[in-house]
Amino acid sequence: MSNFVDYVKIHCTSGHGGAGSAHLRREKYxxxxxxxxxxxxxxxxxxxxxNGHEWTLLPLRxxxxxxxxxxxxxxxxxxxxxxxxxxxxxxxxGTIAKNEDGEILGEILEDGQxxxxxxxxxxxxxxxxxxxxTNQTPRYAQPGLPGEEGFVVFELKILADVGLVGFPxxxxxxxxxxxSAAKPKIANYAFTTLTPNLGIVDYRNYKSFVxxxxxxxxxxxxxxxxxxxxxxRHIERNSILLFLIPADSENHYKxxxxxxxxxxxxxxxxxxKDYIISVSKAxxxxxxxxxxxxxxxxxxxxxxxxxxxxxEGLMELKDAIWKKLHG
Length: 327
Hints:
OBG_GTPase, Rossmann fold, GTP1-OBG_CS, GTPase Obg, five-stranded mixed β-sheet, Spo0b-associated Gtp-binding Protein, Chain: A, metal-binding, 17% helix, magnesium, rod-shaped
């Protein structure tokens, strides 16, 4: 599952600090010159930087390790060692970095924003710092401090106006392909969509909104079954949710309740979002069957019927989405 473009795990090592110098000044006419050892340079930092031109974590997918530069040691004549080279990891806006324990190290909210996610080790102090009235020639200096090391998880939650929620094969990819220029992979087997597809949907009078095809979730996803958890994450940042129940489902309202329960188990706040219920693949139904399916749903939760293949009901669906977004 590590090949998801919204989730990347990288082993990071910040730079060690350089050692301080314990040099004693020795010049021809100054027999007791005293300590003149300089400080070690700081180790390089690992820095996460926002890049407004990136939309996924795909460029980082094959990055396994990053290592910042080591600070140089101090030298005589109170020379401080050079700082180690910082390493920048460019990420899309909306990316969160977490450590191995799941603690959030930072979140990128704007282009060019920089967050140090692993600080380089401090350089050691040279012996000139340890000179005192009782110790005129200290022959010791501090070693540099080690950098930090560990795995960092970069996670990008999809930002969209409408998130499509449904079991595998509910028709999400077909809908997205029919209402936008997105070209998702479409095939008749479970888990076709392994990465979320984003599409710009044209609406009346040159308006538009963003729709995200969230990979299919399965019953039990909230407990981590199947591929569930990774997918549920995407839903958190969508403004409204569009539930898709396929026309050929055995029990349409029951399927909606299962999907709703998965969201509740994962994060109850998701159910506070506005949502629309729809029945996809409506080209398989006649009016009598549509009436029967509609009767399964209580008042206030009646579904909108549409077909991504024939285009039936798509304008009605867009109107309902726009009304929820801007009502």
